[in-house]
């Protein structure tokens, strides 16, 4: 009778050939990559959110655009908002330096400042999107292939178990159930690798979607500031909308 230490996966590894070892090492590598990507991406996302909050506060608290640019240059952390703000500031400075003022007043004769800044901000957001999606393809690939890698290991293990059973001449249920059950462990190992990859992928996609929505909102405020010289006052517009929605009292009516 086999003891607990010499049964199951331990026996399977002892009897495994080169192909089975390759499958085991591949699943182990997939698992390490999965957890590395999940942990590092979530840690980076948390740090990025903190840096974005700090840099956006520094930028909006500045008294002028030049002061805001200087504050971002002195800011030690480099985040998506800092990179996007620098792109917008550089685009604004480039436009005002190389486009004559009389041409900027005639939109039909060239690109306006608003369009020029919009293109720069869109390019910055596209670059940040590429940074955020780094590693997601690997997670999706692992989630899709790990079960099949485990299944291949199971099929290969069953094949060798049947060959060994046929060579030994033992065709009883006890002789078949043990090796086949040990080979099925590879399928379970594939699922153990794939399930965290799927869950981590979905969580990271949602986190990136929220981050890009927030970045797009910041880009809207940044565009307004760079093109008009003032940030959009959302509280002012909300208060005006509330006043405009109040019923107007007609003249000659009595309360």
Using brief descriptors, characterize the structure shown:
0% strand; 255 residues; mainly alpha; 80% helix; disordered N terminus
Helices and strands in order, then pairings?
Elements (H helix, E strand, L loop, with lengths): L8 H7 L2 H44 L3 H10 L5 H19 L2 H4 L8 H20 L3 H33 L4 H11 L1 H44 L5 H11 L11
Helix pairs in contact: 2-3, 2-7, 2-9, 4-6, 4-9, 6-9, 7-8, 7-9
Alpha-beta content class = mainly alpha
DSSP helical segment count: 10
Biggest sheet descriptor? none
Total number of distinct structural domains: 1
Low-confidence stretches: 1-6, 235-241, 248-255
**What is the helix fraction of residues, given as a range?**
over 70%
Description:
The N and C termini lie far apart (97 Å). α2 packs parallel to α9 (185-228) and α7 (136-168) packs antiparallel against α9. The protein has one domain (4-244). It is rod-shaped, with a radius of gyration of 31 Å. Residues 1-6, 235-241 and 248-255 have low confidence and may be disordered. 80% of the residues lie in helices and 0% in strands. The longest helix is centred in the first third of the chain and has 44 residues, at 18-61. It has ten helices and no strands. By secondary structure, it is mostly helical.
The gist of it:
By secondary structure, this protein is mainly alpha-helical. The chain contains ten helices and no strands.
């Amino acid at each position: 009778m086999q003891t607990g230490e010499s049964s199951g996966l331990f026996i399977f590894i002892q009897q495994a050939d080169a192909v089975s070892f390759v499958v085991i090492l591949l699943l182990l590598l997939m698992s390490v990559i999965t957890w590395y990507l999940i942990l590092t991406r979530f840690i980076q996302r948390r740090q990025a959110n903190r840096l974005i909050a700090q840099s956006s506060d520094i930028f909006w608290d500045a008294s002028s655009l030049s002061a805001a640019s200087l504050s971002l240059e002195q800011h030690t952390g480099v985040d998506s908002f800092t990179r996007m703000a620098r792109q917008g500031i550089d685009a604004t400075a480039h436009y005002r330096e190389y486009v004559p003022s009389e041409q900027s007043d005639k939109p039909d004769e060239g690109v306006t400042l608003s369009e020029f800044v919009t293109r720069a901000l869109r390019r910055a957001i596209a670059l940040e999107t590429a940074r955020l999606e780094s590693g997601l393809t690997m997670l999706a690939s692992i989630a899709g292939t790990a079960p099949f890698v485990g299944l291949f290991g199971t099929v290969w293990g069953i094949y060798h178990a049947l060959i060994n059973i046929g060579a030994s001449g033992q065709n009883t249920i006890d002789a078949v159930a043990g090796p086949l059950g040990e080979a099925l462990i590879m399928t379970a190992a594939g699922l153990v690798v794939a399930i965290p990859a799927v869950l981590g992928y979905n969580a990271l996609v949602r986190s990136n979607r929220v981050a890009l929505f927030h970045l797009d909102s910041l880009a809207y405020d940044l565009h307004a500031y760079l093109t008009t010289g003032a940030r959009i006052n959302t509280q002012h517009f909300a208060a005006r909308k509330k006043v405009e929605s109040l019923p107007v009292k007609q003249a000659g009516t009595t309360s």
